[in-house]
Amino acid sequence: MMAYALVLAVGTIAGVVSGIVGTGATIILLPILVIAFGPQSAIPIMAIVALMSNFAKITSWWRDIDWRATAAYALGGIPGAALGARTMLSLPPRLVDIALGSFFLLMIPGRRWLVARRYTIGPWMLVPAGLAIGFLTGIVVSTGPITVPLFSAYGLVKGGFIATEAAASLAVYVSKAFTFRTFGALPTDTILKGLITGSSVMAGTYVAKLLVERLSVTTFQRLLDGVMLISGMALLWAAMR
Asked: How many CB atoms are closer than 10 A to CB 186?
């Protein structure tokens, strides 16, 4: 019971953070899931949690979703995630964690460089980006910080960014979860643990909407940088253990 109480408490906090900046729940929650349920169950559980978290963001910001961007990203992301999840079941992800952690840290100055030059991307570029990021999402626990500069370069901020990134990511995580289930890595007890954990993340996400509406764009962008910093350092730390 104590383990579940801890997971629910941390899950609510993770939901608030993720609901504000669009990502970060996995980095906060994953260590607790490893302690409570073991490392082999943590990744499939997080796949369920990610589905619920993204659903909460979508319902919170439904009217702000850019459906063209969502469809373009999902077009590449769905097959990419299925291939990545199948690869993850047979490939140690340590080197990928190192590469992703380094990428996240580099993207802090990189995102600022793109913003300063007002570099933008069109919806057609989201298709190959979705394929590549979807594949990485299938292998590792989360690639949320990669989508931050991607959808920011598309021109989305605050509610529009959170909702569109969540809608696009939902398709990717459905593909990942389905692949896990197909290959026996998502048994019923793991699904139940994911649903319990995800309920707390959803609660935090709904609370976060009230905070996002009061944030300035500058503060929002600074929070994104903070999440990328924490994400990058956490991945590198995990890979070096």
From this structure: 22
pTM for the full model? 0.76
Residue 214 is classified by DSSP as T
Structure tokens at 138: 């299938």
Residue 49 has phi, psi (to 5 degrees) of -60, -40
Q: Residue ranges of the chain with pLDDT lower than 70?
A: 39, 91-94, 96-97, 100, 111, 114-115, 117-119, 141, 145, 213, 217, 235, 241
Closest alpha carbon to 72 in 155, 130, 22, 133: 130
Secondary structure (3-state) at 142: coil
The answer to whether the CB of 17 falls within 8 A of the CB of 55 is no
Enclosing domain of residue 213? 2-240
How far apart CA 47 and CA 63 sit, in angstroms, is: 25
**Number of structural domains the chain divides into:** 1
Cα distances from 34 to residues 27, 28, 40, 82, in angstroms, run 12, 11, 8, 23
Q: What is the pLDDT of residues 113-128, one digit of tens each?
A: 766 766 678 888 999 9
